[in-house]
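Our working data are protein records whose layout never changes between entries. The record below serves as our worked example for the rest of this section:
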Amino acid sequence: MPDQIHLTVATIIHRDGKFLMVRERDAGEDVINQPAGHVEPGETLQQAALRETLEETGWRVKLTGFLGISTYRSARNGATYYRVSFVAEPVEQVPGATLDGDIIAVEWFDLAALRAEAHRLRSPLVMSVIDNFLSGPLYPLSVVSNLIDQDGGDGAAP
């Protein structure tokens, strides 16, 4: 069993009955996922969600809520993933944005299309967080505390 956990963020972006998703390469397979990825050292969870969304979709978004935390152990690699999920609204698509190299396409899916592609979802977390979004509750962003300042400090008083 791997001795490392993976802290990740995912962003649920919903507009006009559709979800902003990515098609990406994972272990040689084409899979569908929310904009998601690992939190980098010194980064807040919110910063990671905004960065990953921009890097994977070319969209700037505004975080509007906190969905929750999910865990998943991958049968493929044995790693345990801790996924922190946010909800966001699209602000603007960045013209000519360079996407992460493993991104194949950025697409808006309605719920029926996602369910029809269930066999292509990167993990069970993908549909799980969408179901959580649809059923609620949605929590305010203030439930996530940040003690990291913009300079990367530890939040301690000077």
Summary: Confidence is low (pLDDT under 50) at residues 152-158. The two ends are 41 Å apart (CA to CA). The domain at 5-136 is CATH 3.90.79.10 (Nucleoside Triphosphate Pyrophosphohydrolase). The chain is about 20% helix and 40% strand.
